[in-house]
Give the backbone structure.
Amino acid sequence: MKDNIAERSWVEIDLAAYSQNLQLLRERLLPGQCFMQIVKADAYGHGAKEIAEAAQKQGAVYLGVANLEEGKLLRIQGSGAPILILSPSLKSEIPLIIKYGLSPAISDLSFAKALFRAAKKAGEKIKVHLKLDTGMHRSGIALDEAPEIYKQIKAMPDLEIEGIFSHFASAENDQEFTDQQEHGFREFIQSLQEAPRYVHISNSAGLLNHYGKFCNLVRLGIASFGVTTTFNEDLPLEPVMTFKSAISQIKKINAKESVGYEREWIAPRDGRYGIIPVGYADGYDFLLSNRSRVLVQGQLCPVIGRISMDMITVDLTDLEEAQPGDEVTLLGNKSEALRAEKLAALYGGSAYELLCQVGRRAKRYYRINDRIHHSAPLARRDFVSSDFGDSKLNQIISSALTQRLESSEIGEMIYREILRTFFYNKDRDIHYRKDFCHDISFQGSPISGYYRAETSLRYRKVLRSDSFIIACAASDEILRGFFLNPNVEYRWLLDAKLSLSEESFAVNKVKVGGIDLKTRVERGEGFLLIHCSHPRLSRMINREIDFEIITTTLYSKSLHQFSVFISDLTKGIDISFSYPKELSHVEPVSIFSGQEKNPLIHRGEQMIRISTKADEWIFPLSGVVFTY
Ligand SMILES: *Cc1c(COP(=O)(O)O)cnc(C)c1O
């Protein structure tokens, strides 16, 4: 990947390893037990959104987050799963907890009362989980107060006690204490007339050390991410996260010269060392100085000298083949020495912490086996899109454009500012198309009442994944769904009278970055999906490349209009419509929002062309309707 990934460092998340870990863990559940996937702290750095989605596919009945913000972010990213906020919430957070349909943990009566009042006012029933302190002595209701508080909360009609839980302090290695915690919890649960829907106490270590057999829910965190510790040595868990970078420079060093701050490493012999653009600011812990190793060309090379804020140095003397640009693995992968737990052990740290902090500046790439199917920008982790929602965006754009009418200077300034904020900050991962060229040609067809429509679509854009879909819908409703699916690159609405088949909608060619893609047609109720992919595409991810899609389909003569929609943000368009002689009165009606409301119209013989300047932005929901 070294030639293609532009980042200084990146994180790969192996979703196949995650699924495999979960399969192993699920085998340890007792009949009737289900699991909650803990996705707090951005799923221990793995990406809460992606892990939440994968967890649900594996049957997770609940997601666990640390606080309101994390839950809110998941909701905004589209998760409809039940979400438990594990830590105590603040009273000031109650309105948003209700708004986003999150279940708070309740650790004291005063919060429960405030929540009850808010729930009553909102006219909603809120699901809560009571948190009992069975000995960890962090949050939670003390066991001796639990019966009374339980009674009072039970009497609040707008709160539903959906769960009761507790948390082990030391399920991995203190059996006596853990037994005691479990005992206290069980006694309380058994004292209840009716148990709530969910009773849970075990984290990963609790499950694997056979605690909580009377519970019906288990909260899985660290083990699902493939970290092995003393309590799960017998499980072949695979690390899900890999942290990578590349050698940026290689230098010579003479014996007795030192490398880095405080001259903590002195060369024992003449040799070579490499510089890797990752430091403690990237989460590569300072305490790994002079201790850890990294993998280059399959060989472990010692980290020499102190870890700097943005750089580390590695001894390459024994690896003559190493070259600048070589991929470097710092954590994870299949190398035993680079597992999070092994690295953390080098400095007496915690694998939990290491996973959370590593790759703080890095983008995440999601793979399933050898395929990268998705990448997530860093900003995903704290950028709440609803704080900058579509409608707000449109408001800003339209008011900026209105401003322009009043004062071109101010309008221009605001407009540029918006563009800069959105499009030049690459971390935002704004998708847009460039040099968009769409040619549509209507011709006679053997099917009466229909034209044969040849469409050719060309544009440039940054490739985000190694596969995408071309979708043909038989109804508006299904088409709308395709507009919401980011994996759909091109959509077509087929006349309802035609049957969906490759005769009525054929993809003749899909060429991306000069490669003819492989296509596979999937037929569904009311739609055709053409899956387009090629193994070589994975090497072009994050590069700007050419797309070309050519289709043949049928278009009803009686509709008297044909529309081209601009569904993505686009820079520079050129749309042409060629038609047969029998159509003598073709008129284009363009609806453009962007820098210029009125694009150029050029009429030729039996053809109309609509275009803008190449560097002009056109916003989504623009388009042109050709009437005939
Ligand atoms: C983080 C957390 C877990 C998950 O613990 P692991 O050891 O990672 O499995 C479970 N329950 C609660 C309350 C937590 O905060």
